[in-house]
Write a structure and sequence with these properties.
about 30% helix, alpha/beta, four-stranded antiparallel sheet, globular, about 230 residues, six-stranded mixed sheet, about 25% strand
Amino acid sequence: MPDTILKLKDVAVFQNENLILKDITLEVKKGEFVYIIGKTGSGKSSFMKTLYADIPLKKGSGSVVDFGLKNLQEKDIPFLRRKLGIVFQDFKLLPDRNVNNNLRFVLKATGWTDASKMDSKIEEVLDKVGMKTKGFKFPHELSGGEQQRIAIARALLNDPELILADEPTGNLDPQTSVEVMKVLQDINQNGRTIIMATHDYALILKYPHKTLKCDGSKVFEVIQKATST
């Protein structure tokens, strides 16, 4: 079933030996946009880390972009992550190089070798996030919102099947959050699947999508009422 991007059955998430979440059964299909909400410490980040194999799956069964998480070997983790685009709250840009070279670094690390193909790919992803003219800027010369757009562009470099965004607007003011959210909406409308952890309820109401809540060590769907915009 290639249209299923993520499937979890009876999954428990542990942080070291501590049980964080349990009994997670979930299916995400291609093209869906899913929010993960919950208070700080409710397990959102641990859940996301399990999906990109930063936390090993010890209990239950799960597959992400056709990779089984239960018996995933260390050597296969980079191949899983190449099919994922990961966006972090704190951007994680390399401060010692400009935007173009930040993106080139990722391409080289994931096996790209042709310089002209790398250049055109970098231009393509910067264009998608509205940052085509900023390639020569260094991270410290950009606003928080611009840095997050670059981080989203970086996540798009290897044409991921699934984008995992962990609190992507957590460090941004409300207006900038909306701008970054619009970028993610556009990407989703072009057919990419996105799972986004957030505690920004205003965004969820403005852009309603399927919403899962982490609470009391469980993950369950909540129905959001859309506001008129």
